[in-house]
Design brief:
99 residues; alpha+beta; 2 domains
Length: 99
């Protein structure tokens, strides 16, 4: 969770106190929102927290794909493997596979 009293800083302050803010981010796991002329411009995050974020996005995308696949199965939007393989080979000019 972002703490607006600590996690929103000016870019100028970040430049002056970079090592202090890096330590803060490592300790809290929170990103810093950096402002220019009072407006949010950048978000800075430590590498470990960023990797965790990427991992969560990958997991969320995988779960969404699984949900869509299950919905397709439940709705009958499926193709039997043999039919798919036959069409796949035909479209790509591949020989039929011996049975």
């Amino acid at each position: 969770m972002l703490d607006i009293s600590k996690d929103i800083q000016s870019l100028s302050d970040f430049k002056r106190r970079t090592s202090e803010f890096l330590e803060q981010m490592r300790g809290s796991g929170h990103p810093l929102v950096l402002t220019v002329n009072g407006r949010a411009e950048l978000v800075v995050q430590d590498a470990a927290s960023y990797q965790r974020l990427l991992d969560r996005v990958d997991t969320a995308e995988a779960l969404e794909g699984i949900k869509r696949g299950r919905a397709d199965v439940e709705a009958g939007r499926v193709t039997p493997l043999r039919e798919f393989e036959r069409e796949f080979r035909k479209k790509r000019g591949l020989p039929s596979r011996p049975r």
